[in-house]
Amino acid sequence: MSVVRFPVTVEEAAASPGEYRAGGTDVMDRRAQGITPIEDLVDLTRVPALRAMDWLPAPPIDTSESPEEPPTEEELTSEAEAPTAPAFDPVASGGFTIGAMVTMAQMGRSEDLRTWYPGLAGVAGAGATPQIRAVGTLAGNLLQRPRCWYFRHPEFKCFKKGGHLCYSRSDDHSLHSIFDLGPSRAVHPSTLAMVLLAYDADVEVRGGEHRSMEAFLGDGADPLRENTLEDGALVTAIVLPPPRPAERWGYKRAIARRRAEWPLVEAHVRLELEGASIGRVAVAAGAVAPVPMRLRNVEASLRGKKATQANLEAAANLAATGASPLPGNAYKVAMLKGCVLEALERAVGGGS
Amino acid sequence: MTYMGTSPTRPDAAAKATGRAEYISDAVRPGMLHGAIRFSEHAHARILRIDTSKAERIPGVRAVITAENTPEVRLGFLRDNLALKKGKVRQFRDEIAAVAAIDPDIAAEAAAAIEVEYEPLPAVFDPIEALAEGAPLVHDVDPRGRPVTSNLMPVHFRHFSGDVEKARAASAYVAEGEWSTPLIQQTCMGTAGCIAEFDPQMNLTVWAKTQIPFLAQRDFNGALAQMGLRNKNARVIVPALGGGFGTGLDTHCYEYISILLAWKTGKPVKVQYNRDQEFAYLSPRQSATVRMAQGCDRDGRLTFRHVHVVQDNGAYGSWGATYPSVMLLPATSLYRVPNIYFDCELVYTNNTYAQAMRGYGNPELTFALESNLDQLAEEAGIDAAQLRLINCNEPNEVTPMGLKVATCGLRECLEQTAERLDWDNKRGAPDGTARGVGMASLIHVGGSGRIYRSDASGVILRFDDWGNLYLSSGGVEMGQGLHSSLQIVAADAIGVAPDRVFINQTDTSTCPWDVGTHASRGAFTACNALLMGATKLRDKVFRAAVELYPQLVEEALRKQRKRDPDAPAPSFDWRSRIDADAFDLREGQVFLSNTDDPVLRVDLGKLIRAAHFRDGGGQMFTVEAFYDPPSELPDWEQGQGNMSACYTFGTQGVEVEVDTDTGDVRILKMAAVLDVGKVINPQILRGQTIGALAQGVGYALYEEVKTERGRILNPNFTDYKIPTAVEMDFPIELEFVETDEPTGPYGAKGIGEPGLVPTAPAIANAIADAVGVRIHDLPITPEKLLAALRAKNEEAT
Predict the structure, then answer these.
(1) In this complex, do A338 and B782 lie within 8 Å of one another by their Cβ atoms?
(2) Which CATH architecture has domain B13-121+192-272?
(3) Could you tell me if residue A312 is inside a domain?
(4) Does the beta carbon of B232 lie under 8 angstroms from any beta carbon of chain A?
(5) From the CA atom positions of chain B, what is the Rg in Å?
(6) What is the pLDDT of residues B377-415, one digit of tens each?
(7) In this complex, do A252 and B787 lie within 8 Å of one another by their Cβ atoms?
(8) In degrees rounded to 5, what are phi and psi of residue B496?
């Protein structure tokens, strides 16, 4: 007999034995299909503290600022370069926190996010289906397990289930990774993780520890998990660095079905223009590796360059550097370059 | 006619919209137990030992059955399948044992507690490999125990006409290639299930999700005989169906298992699949590979067509193994071709065994045929629409297969599609975009399809004392709107309001025989039977009216005079006109034709009651009719015979845009023009056609049951992708050509399946027009498109 517990505080939740359940869209499937052994559940939907969404008092938890490039006063207040962005509100300069149990729909509707973090709100509000967005939560999205059909099939005991094989390497790997970061070729399923990686967000873990997205996701080498979260640890919130009023963004996903589907390849771009040149830029890609990746070489090649089509194409062509695709997924190399280019074009063009 | 061509509220609408319709998943019987099945964990293995002792000890378990403790029950038209497998398993979903318990969870737990020991055997998953010398044999012996030497199924469909080799040599242009189509799921919203229950006399009732209640009765009676219950009967009751799409054309192992469990326990037993089980344990549509070549002369007239089909049937034969019977239609008769070769190989493998699905072989064959035709047009330098028009079928022709085509609107379908797509401006336009247009046509049976001795449908019509019409048909309403068609045709043909027509739940104990609701035949055959019955019933009413109408009118006149002494008398001598042929019946009123005097109109119920309670012997108003279409059971070895009373034609056109960076295909517009004979209910016809287009879009772009050495990798709606509303969010222009088919009820042809037949090739042809690459295997995924585009670019540089 399995038990579902309904704690109302974070401490109670942490003290309850069992697997955490947020929206339940993934954990309940895995439980019903016997993919991973899950008995007792700790349901988090009644913990109000995990649902908060608010501005943080200054100073922000500052992991987002690239040390070489502190934002200038001019950047923060420039309206000419980002005519659509409202004037920057200094009250909000401490960053923004989103509770772990905030749903994708709430993020998509949030005026704060839509105004100041449009790239995040846009993706959260358009992913999956309206039904999934209504119950699927931020942390649940980050912590969902991969869609690999071998992992999801109860009869294949692969690396991810403590086995000694990644079936996709020799069999059907058409949806699998092209960057060989570890024993498993399953790709990370979370689009929000990729977007938050581009946002230099932090993950707040119960007890107050802040871990950068990059540290949270890890290097993709451990097949048993898709992040560095310790067993039993509870994500309480995501913390975004202060907004960048001059920022533009672009997102592109290649997808087999137009909606309600995990992408084949996706890319997210945030950038700021300084005159005709590219200033700050962050480029992340998903569905190409066991974890979402920051494409640092693409970013480096863009920084300081004019935002011309030739420069964008040259940068996008670097996107798959280091990739080692398998015979059945080589198409993702071209697709990754295509998605990065399209995301760059959309960002330069004004953001979508 | 008052109701033909209108859309009155369909009779099942309110119950379905309010959740009151009872599907099999809702059905409960007193004292019912729940069954669960233990399936194979190997694609091919010998069963060494089955230990059910742990399962039997679980509290709440009422029976555990295996092939060892139950009679052998064989099924399938080739008799190659056993309800519970004996000796060896041939696919992952083979049924090894089953449990009946007091609730579904206990049943599932007990099924999992059964221990099975296997000796794995070499397996074969590719039909070509399965045909090779020395390939593992899926079946070592035939159903009679005789040794088998090949995986080729003993089923033959062929057609040879003219001299294909000579014609090929004489052709000015030839195009050939190979096309393949995947296993796909029917994805009925209502999942499969049944309840089996024996009465104290050991007669059986099965509530079954079936499209063939009467053939199912025959199958279940056969099972009763195999169980030693001779001279007992199976009654089949069909609950509301959440879609059939071919899944109800066969009887299934789970049905026989619930019969065996009910027999063993003496209780009703329900077996109900959930969505995951439906994906894993129900048969999908066959996968097929079609090798096709066609040629034409300098003027674009088709000279020959050469077709070879290899079909993977999986481990057992279902009716779906007879797909080539329908493939013969397009292969021999879509467009005019004088010289034809058609041959097929149906192969056993250790894959999941397949079954029928909407279109029944036609979408597979048409994908190859219409793709190949575009290639031929390119070879010949003739516009693809023009090539089709040059070879267009025409009314009153007999095709090489012997199909007698009376009405044919194909030319209008082609022309209308081209116009709606702005074909002349958009086809081949070097506009710098990755946009393109494509089209494809179809021929399908429109007047039922004779694949069985009887292709008939019966109807029983009965008036009650109040003039309500009770209509019993053996046809199955599975969401397609059969009952609405029956209501509309009954209202017009008999003369009662549609909401006074009550249609029986399909039940073999109360409804007359019908071969099954498939081959787009439901409305065609049932409404034709209804029209025959309507004439009889009206005649019966009018003969009674000759005797009873005068007294009823006199009585009405008396009452009228009492109310209003000055009321004018009828303006003519109505008594002198009394004759059975002089009456009419409309909207539940009997009257002399050509009069509208209300006092001369007699309520039908009143007339019937007068007949019922008449001194010296009353009567009832019940008639039956039986319609068997004017068609022939073809000679399959020769591929000859007029298998349908008439034929449905149509053309679909698509405009697409391809993202050459990501391989994403966006449909900008679709046009579907169908020769439907006559529209019965426009709303339902639109719904049927748009639903079929959505299935066609899924077949073309998204859907595939992925397998890995016989295991299904994507048995759920998360990983098996059907189109959603978002993917279908583009303009669809529908046009129905009315050719008024003489054999059709009020001129209508069957239209259930055809909508999806040409969708995939129309899309493939549009993609080829957009970006110059042709994908030969469905679904056309971004990865296949990108790979093809890259190959094309490499070739160019």
Answers:
(1) no
(2) Alpha-Beta Complex (3.90)
(3) yes
(4) no
(5) 29
(6) 999 999 999 999 999 999 999 999 999 999 999 999 999
(7) no
(8) -125, 160
